[in-house]
Amino acid sequence: MKHYGFLVVAFAMLVAMTGFAMADPGVNATFETQGITIVTSIQAQGNMDSMTDIDWVQTSADPITEVPSLDAGTYYASTYQEDTQSNGVGNIYYDKTTLVETKARLSNQWNIEAEKQINFVGIDGARISSDESIFVDGTGRAQETKDKVICVFAPTVSSNIPAFCNVVDTGSSIDMSVANVGTTTGNRFIVASADTPVEEYHTIRVDMLGDSPSIGQASAYMKGLIMEGRGGDEKMYEKVEFEERTSVDGYIMLFDKNMDWISGVKRA
User: Fold this and answer.
1) Exposure winner among 8, 149, 183, 227, fewest CB in 10 A?
2) pTM greater than 0.85
3) First to last CA, the chain
């Protein structure tokens, strides 16, 4: 086993999208809503395999088509994927909770939310791998502020919520013979009004398993492309590309990474 840490940072990070000049107003809920809750718990000596795959598309005005015309309103697509498996016999403790809610959410509430904890000790060279990612892609044409924002002062600042096209992807992966790993993941893009911002986050923490370090590889990343207009002019006035990635390989006493992206016409 190599004893080293490897860090790559390619970072042009998106900073505060504040005031009423920016966009990302989210999308409204459908009349009928759904809630999905899945809880998994494994304690075993052996092999395991667990997979979660969520694909979600929602529009506020135009019906969903293969390539939406988007004559009005907003269009959002989101995915969440998690794939965990061992390649041999090991002592396994695995807990996972996945929540999906199609209702409009407020700040600190989520449409997709997942929490995972893995403890693993491989026998005779067995390893466990886990890949997890969450993605949101939103776009929309200019809309009148008075129709989307509750705040009474918003239209005096800008009569239009500008056109926008924003995409953000974040996640992590591990490949370990000894593992103590926890992750949390979520996003929010269905909202009652543009007063609640769109948000996506992912965290990973790898640390000691009892008195022993975790052994193997771990990495995490966030990347995105932000394109924003101004007022009712559907030309691009802002473009931000960002990527941030961290990797470590060896005996891991601590690898702790928190990533969050938030975008809206109104932010605290």
Assistant:
1) 8
2) yes
3) 46
